[in-house]
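User: Reviewer 2 asked us to show a designed sequence for the structure in our supplementary figure. I'm pasting the structure tokens here. Could you produce the per-position amino acids so we can include them in the response letter?
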């Protein structure tokens, strides 16, 4: 069923348009080779991915700072796999990860197709909790930046999703309001509940198609947005 009265479409970036897991895995493979870290990337990622998600949750909740996230997620993962590294190497890997992450730019299936389709009738925007210095590079290198009128990140807004202030900031920047806007994202807490709580319509993007709430519009492929927009 098509949404009525929508003029502005807001997207999350990582895990929604930009395939973070795939690009991150390729980045670790690259920086491990650069720094002669002899560990299987698959073994590392098995531990890293849940650890990273937990650090991002703490970061969203304002319980840790960016530097703690960047160092802690690597340090904890190396400890979990029993691979000894010193503080200097962890800091080097942390910096190299940020440097090289945007050199890989795999997008989710049908990203260009849906952005081409939506841009004909809607104004498109980004709201992301990602780091300022990386998000613009990701969008530019993957050639999607021109689709978006505004880009709001948590460092510019001063708060992170699901804090209502970041959505208010983005709506003001876009010169629109919640009743005319829809948020599309992969995080049920940050994107869906955050936007819903300020009156925005929402579409939950989940490639695993986990039915978390039958009252929430849900897709597992971006092209399915055509059902609603």
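Assistant: Here is a per-position design you can include in the supplement:
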């Amino acid at each position: 069923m098509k949404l009525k009265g929508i003029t502005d479409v807001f997207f999350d970036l990582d895990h929604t348009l930009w395939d973070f897991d795939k690009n991150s895995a390729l980045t670790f493979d690259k920086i491990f080779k650069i720094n002669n870290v002899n560990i299987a990337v698959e073994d590392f990622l098995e531990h890293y991915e849940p650890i990273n998600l937990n650090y991002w949750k703490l970061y969203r909740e304002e319980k840790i700072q960016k530097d703690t996230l960047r160092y802690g997620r690597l340090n904890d993962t190396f400890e979990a796999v029993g691979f000894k590294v010193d503080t200097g190497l962890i800091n080097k890997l942390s910096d190299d990860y940020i440097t090289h992450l945007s050199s890989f730019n795999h997008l989710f299936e049908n990203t260009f197709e849906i952005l081409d389709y939506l841009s004909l009738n809607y104004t498109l925007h980004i709201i992301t909790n990602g780091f300022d210095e990386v998000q613009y590079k990701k969008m530019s290198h993957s050639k999607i930046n021109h689709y978006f009128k505004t880009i709001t990140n948590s460092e510019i807004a001063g708060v992170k999703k699901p804090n209502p202030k970041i959505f208010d900031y983005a709506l003001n920047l876009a010169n629109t309001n919640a009743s005319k806007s829809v948020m599309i994202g992969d995080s049920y807490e940050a994107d869906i509940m955050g936007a819903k709580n300020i009156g925005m319509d929402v579409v939950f993007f989940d490639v695993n198609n986990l039915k978390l709430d039958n009252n929430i519009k849900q897709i597992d492929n971006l092209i399915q947005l055509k059902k609603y927009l």
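For the response letter, you might also mention the following. The domain at 20-101 is CATH 1.10.150.240 (DNA polymerase; domain 1). Residues 16 and 133 are 19 Å apart (CA to CA).
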